[in-house]
Amino acid sequence: MSTRQTVVDREMFVQALRHMGEEDLLFLNRMVVERLNLLAQARSTVQLAQFAEGDRVHFTTNDGAVKQATVVRLNKKTASLLTDDGQHWKVSSALLRKQVTA
Question: Looking at the structure, do residues 34 and 71 belong to the same domain, yes or no?
């Protein structure tokens, strides 16, 4: 689809939105939220697919500390980890980096 076509379609969509009532807007909102959740779940699944149980990873905590860990389990949205200092963490796959072995 060309950029010109996309702009025209968006303008038509904006015009349609301006004429929608509350019930239609609430329905559209539910549809948009569903779609966004589906896209986020698909992205999370792709990111998690990069890892397997037993992989060595590292991540940065909120306070800036870098933790080294082993993947214990892959959950729906997170990876369960056991850090080298014995702590259990559940971390989003987007925050994990595979350990580079020398």
Answer: no
- DSSP secondary structure code for residue 61 in this structure: -
Query: In 3D, which of 48, 101, 50, 36 has the Cα closest to residue 79?
Result: 48
Residue 72 belongs to domain with CATH number: 2.30.30.140
C-beta atoms surrounding 67 within 10 Å = 16
Q: 87 lies in which domain range?
A: 56-98
The total of structural domains in the chain comes to 2
DSSP alpha helix (H) spans, the chain: 3-18, 22-48
| pLDDT tens, position by position, 49-80 | 999 999 999 999 999 999 999 999 999 889 99
User: Whole-angstrom distance between the N-terminal and C-terminal Cα of the chain?
Assistant: 46
Instruction: Output Rg (C-alpha) for the chain, integer angstroms.
Output: 21
**Whole-model pTM?**
0.66
H helix or E strand, kind and range, residue 18: helix 3-18
Residues 44 and 65 in one domain: no
